[in-house]
Amino acid sequence: MKVSLFIPCFVDQLLPQVGIDLATVLRRIGCDVNFPEAQTCCGQPAFNTGYWGEAKPLAERFVSVFRSADFVVCPSGSCTAMVRNFYPELLADSPLREEAMDIGSRVFEFSEFLVTFAKAGEVAARFPHRVAVHDSCHALRELHLKQQPREVLRHVQGLTLVDLPYSEDCCGFGGTFSGKFPMISAAMGDAKAASAERSAAEYVTSTDPSCLLHIEGIFRRHNSQVRIISLPGILAQTASAGEHAADARPSRSAP
Amino acid sequence: MSSPAQEFLRSATEKSADLAHRQIIRKGIDSYQAAFEGGRSRFLDWQDARRRLYEIKWDAINHLDRYLEEFERRVIERGGHVFWAENSEEACKYIADLALARGVKKIVKSKSMVTEEIHLAHALEKLSIPSIETDLGEYIVWLRNEPPYHIVTPAMHLTRAQIAALFQEKLGGIDSDDPQELVAAARRALRRDFFSAEMGISGANFLIADSGMIALTTNEGNGRLCTSLPRIHVAVAGIEKILPRLEDLAAFWPMLATSGTGQPISCYSTLVGGPRRPGEPDGPEEFHVVLLDNGRSELLGDAEKRDILHCIRCGACLNACPVFRTIGGHTYGTTYPGPIGSVLTPQLRGLNEFQHLSYASSLCGACTDVCPVKIDLHHHLLHNRRDAINTATRPWLERRAFQIFRWMMMDSRRFAFFGWMARLKMRALYALGLAGSALDPSRAWTRNHSAPAIPAHSFRALWRRAHGAN
Amino acid sequence: MAQTESSSRERILARVRNALLTPAARHAGPEQKRIFAPVADPLDRFQKECAANITECVLAPDLPASAAAVAEILAALPPGEIFVQDSPELRALAPAWRQSRSVRWSSEGGPREESEATITLCEALVALTGSVLVSSACGGRGASVVAPVHIVVAGLKHLVPDLDSAFRLMRERGTATQNSYVCLITGSSRTADIEKILVLGAHGPRRLIVVLSRSFE
User: Fold this and answer.
1) Is position C162 within any domain?
2) C94-145 per-position pLDDT tens digit
3) Residues B74, B77, B81, B87, Cα dihedral to 10°
4) Do B470 and A214 touch (CB under 8 A)?
5) Is residue C57 part of a domain?
6) Searching chain A, which residue's CA lies closest to the CA of residue B359?
């Protein structure tokens, strides 16, 4: 199965390991993974701030970059939602209108993809820790993902899924919201940190690395014992630790 | 004089740091949440019930002229008066003139958000006619001389101790902060007012077109006393409160109660149609309905935004909103706080001045999820933002920044290059310990977060190294 | 005042009509017409709901027994005037409890501020929510809200399963057209405005009592 990676702009620049881990897991389940280098950004930051004029050409560009991809997998619920739920409205007047309506059915959030296409246990991950899931708002309410991240974690060897109180409460990131209203954003993050402290979790994860970036910054500011890890980060962990380390090191061999 | 946006930022900063306030609100919301879950489980299919309400409201709003005229006709048939007010001033003038003409010395008021919207209290104050809030929550904030905190539970930000102290100061004779005692004190204080006021003013939850009646829901009974005892009853309502038929209430009454407070139905679901009839033992001699436009007909004309007028003012979106929970109802500085307020206020009072409300949201969508009439609230916020960019004043720097953002993102090598430069700069800055300082471009972030680890290589650089270019 | 009234009216209606020239999108409607499950056993449901919303429900075999129950309730209340809906049924029952009480009938006007209790009939009882439907024909507006205790004398014949049937009944009888006031009462007056703690007896009755007779002859 040929899978194209959709690596969000901030993951590309700030959280590259998430992308590496994503590729590792997809390869492990037998996917032929490629990364269309021409991709940049889906346009969500501009779109959410109201700059639809700036977002539109980026959306059209995205549609053409991924035009020939059968399956596109993304480690972010909010970026996936942008493409699936908002491209049709944003590109309603565009010559690429038809493609914009169609592309949503070819783009998947990572856990969504695994639950739909991977066989149970195929990922063969091992992560013997207590993990809680923070439900990112876009994944939950735009893509209707709730069970999917939990389902993939249930098949991880040694992992105990624990409850996060108020898991569906927004963490407060909200993209440019965190820049425009940092005090409110931080207070919402504080509330999320308090929930995590009260839970039995050693790790908190989510379908959205942007939420995790925000939550981690707040947790570390609070000197919290709870750690943050991405979903690909968990699933990339296997019984043989050596395998994971090898994938993280860039290899010098030709493709 | 600071702008609404500046005032909002100031108040939001203050409230976001107020842990005690957050805890009180959290407790209140949790209690509501538990009741709401219970209330929702009584329905055969909650989602289906929401669709039903949506249908009825769609019909009502999209045939508003016809239903308004029918409503008016029937009210007049019942011996009532209908006054059409284009704006707050006209509405207040009508009520004030009426009070003066009828020699009204005291007014008792049942809770009504629309009377807050038109600043009726202020207009009546100028005539020196006391207008007494009788809903307990409203009474409490009225004694404190502050606006309501929440459209359904106006005093949810106060503890019993604070209320006891308030009552002791204003009423005297308070022994404890037992809620039972406090309610009894309010009942005693207000009872005389109900029996002696010449005019009762209420809002209306719904205007029923086919019957010429207004529907009023309360739990305390104050709304019933205001509309039964004084000799004049004035009801004020936005024109969008129309429902086509009496039977529609079989769906709206339970849904409003469940969404508003988690109850199966409110204690008193009342229908008022006109003054007392000949042969009736009691009731007002006069009945007036003031229909308020105040920008609603203009909103109606925007087909994309029309369903905002479906709102039944239940308050569920306020309870669901994480921003509301953090900053509280007063910070918004508007009649209607919370998500509906953030959607509506820029439309009714101007995008330029109030666009910040539509930006003060993480677009989490919890509001849209809970709205009983299926208003797509968070998408309306997004549309307000789009409209702000297209028609209102935005900071020049921001417009420029997004132009640059677009330019950068239209070329992957450009993106890779600028990304690399930015990372280089931030790594150096953080390494020098300048995170959070005036030199830190990310200080809005680092002020509240530990500075993130900036990677040396981007994903695309690592991929290229591992797999070569493709 | 009349001039302003009519021109504002015309302007508002004109704007509304003009606004509606643009059609709005319409989403999918409901899948079925029912929003509540049918009520299997109305009497049982009514009693359960009353217990939940704190309405006292007293069952009696017949009207004379109802009258005795009312007398018992009144005996436990402070002495003072009671207000009674002036209807043939309640006039007939009055001797059972009026000896020690001063009674004000609704034909004399509305209830006085100091009323200790009010007694009325009802239009209907609604099982789904444990509610009492009254109108201004049931002793007027104040009759069901002024006093601290409101006693409803009703019969099984008044019981309807749900809100839809209550509204159907109202249509058939013309309750809304013939009266200036209708109220669906569910439980006693209450508020949760102080720390979300439920307190009974805000401005309306602290106690709502339904004396339900199997027969109403």
Assistant:
1) yes
2) 998 877 789 999 999 999 999 999 999 999 999 999 999 999 999 999 999 9
3) 20
4) no
5) yes
6) A177
State how far the alpha carbon of C152 is from the alpha carbons of B270, B281, B361, C110, C208, in Å.
17, 18, 50, 17, 8
Cα–Cα distance between B294 and B96 in angstroms, integer?
Answer: 18
Pairing state between β B268-272 and C82-84 = unpaired
Residue C71 domain flag: yes
C161 touches chain B (CB under 8 A): no
Strand partners, A204: A132, A228
Q: Which pair of tokens denotes residue B216?
A: 């009023």
Ordered alpha helix ranges (H), B17-63:
19-40, 46-62
Asked if ipTM goes beyond 0.85, one says yes
A169 touches chain B (CB under 8 A): yes
For residues B217 and B256, the answer to whether their CB atoms sit within 8 Å is: yes
| Beta carbons of B16 and A183 less than 8 Å apart | yes
| Helices within B132-220 (DSSP H only) | 136-143, 160-170, 179-196
Interface of B with A in 373-402 (CB under 8 A): 382, 384-390, 398-399, 402
From the list A34, A54, A186, the residue facing B448 with the nearest CB is A186
The arithmetic mean of pLDDT across residues A50-69, rounded, is: 96
* Domains held by chain C: number: 1
User: What fold does the segment set A130-235 form as a domain?
Assistant: Rossmann fold (3.40.50)
Percent of chain A past pLDDT 70, that is, above it, reads 93
Distances C81 to A113, A218, B344, C9 between C-alpha atoms, Å: 74, 66, 50, 48
Q: Which of residues 37-96 of C touch B (CB under 8 A)?
A: 37, 49, 53
C167 touches chain B (CB under 8 A): yes
The per-residue pLDDT for range C52-64, each reduced to its tens digit, is: 999 999 999 999 9
Residue pair B71/B273 in contact (Cβ under 8 Å)? The answer is no
Average pLDDT over residues B413-421: 95
Contact B455 A15 (CB under 8 A): yes
Output the six-digit token pair for C122. Answer: 């009802």
Could you give the C-alpha distances from A19 to A33, A34, A81, A118, in angstroms and in order? 12, 12, 18, 19
> Using one digit for the tens of pLDDT, what is the confidence trace for A83-118?
999 999 999 999 999 999 999 999 999 999 999 998
Q: Which CATH class is domain B50-131+193-297?
A: alpha beta
The model carries a pTM of 0.93
CB pairs under 8 A between B and C: 284
Instruction: Report the gap between the CA of B231 and the closest CA in chain A (Å).
Output: 49
CB distance from A196 to chain B under 8 Å?
no
By the CB < 8 Å criterion, does C164 face chain B?
A: yes
Residue C183 placed within a domain: yes
DSSP string, C70-91: HHHHHHTSPSS-EEE---HHHH
A12/B419 touch (CB, cutoff 8 Å), yes or no: yes
C180 interfaces chain B, CB cutoff of 8 Å? yes
Domain ranges in chain A are: 2-117, 130-235
Judged by CB atoms closer than 8 Å, whether chains meet at B84 and C31 is answered as no
Q: Which residue of C has its CA nearest to B238?
A: C12
Which B residues, 405 through 424, put their C-beta within 8 Å of a C-beta on chain A? 405-406, 408-412, 415, 419, 422-423
Report the neighbours of B using a cutoff of 3 or more CB pairs below 8 angstroms.
A, C
Quick one: CA dihedral B327, B329, B331, B334, positive or negative? positive
* Residue C97 lies in domain: 41-213
What is the C-alpha separation between A126 and A131, in angstroms, rounded?
12
List chains touching A (3+ CB pairs under 8 A): B
Domain ranges of chain B: 1-41+315-394, 50-131+193-297, 397-467
Could you tell me the CATH number of the domain that includes residue C154?
3.40.50.10420
Give B389→chain A minimum CA distance, Å. Answer: 6
